Amino acid sequence: MDESLIRRLESAVARLEALSARSVSRELDAVDVGGDTASSDPSILAYEDVISGRVGRVLSAGEKIGGQVLDISKIIQEAFSVQKELLVKIKQTQKPDMNGLLELLKPLNDVILRASALTEGRRSQFFNHLKTGADSLAALAWVAYTGKDCGMSMPISHVEESWQMAEFYCNKILIEYRNKDENHVEWAKALKELYIPGLRDYVKCHYPLGPLWSTTAKMTAPSSAKPPTARGPVPPPPPPASLFSSETAQVSSSRPKEGMAAVFHEINSGKGVTSGLRKVTNDMKTKNRSDRSSLVSASEKKTNASVTAFSKEGPPKLELQMGRKWVVENQVGQNNLLIDECDAKQSVYVYGCKNSVLRVQGKVNNITIDKCAKMGVVFKDVVAACEIVNCNSVEVQCQGSARTISIDNTSGCQLYLSKDSLEASLTTAMSSEVNILVPASDSGGDWGEHALPQQYIHVYKGGVFATTPVSHSGG
Question: Is the full-model pTM beyond 0.70?
Answer without folding.
Answer: no
